[in-house]
Write a structure and sequence with these properties.
five-stranded antiparallel beta sheet; alpha+beta; 110 residues
């Protein structure tokens, strides 16, 4: 494995190593460098600080040789179901938005 540690265990990726990280924001693999390796209580790698993301979960970090168009890690493809507001909150929110629009139009008319 790569890199040493003061914990007596080797990290899967070492500090300074080029890796790919799955960005949920950009929905793609991005190249970045390992800046720090975080170990859990049992000594296993818990996360990485990367140039693209601090505390990146190990499941989202791959070797730099991973193709840019490789599939996302399991369950991390970014597909999200839209959540519609419900109940009284939704009605209040809609009324507030309508008021904001009317208020803006009134101010613009001044």
């Amino acid at each position: 494995l790569f890199g040493g540690s003061s914990h007596g265990l080797a990290a899967a990726f070492g500090v300074g190593e080029l890796v790919r990280y799955w960005s949920a924001t950009h929905l793609k693999w991005v190249e970045c460098y390992v800046q720090r390796v975080h170990f859990g209580p049992g000594g296993a790698v818990a996360s990485y600080d990367l140039t693209a993301k601090a505390q990146a979960h190990t499941s989202r970090v791959r070797p730099a040789s991973t193709p840019e168009d490789a599939p996302a890690p399991d369950g991390q493809d970014g597909a999200k179901k839209p959540v519609a507001p419900q109940g009284a909150w939704a009605e209040e929110s809609a009324q507030a938005k309508a008021h904001d629009v009317r208020g803006s139009a009134e101010i613009a008319a001044l």
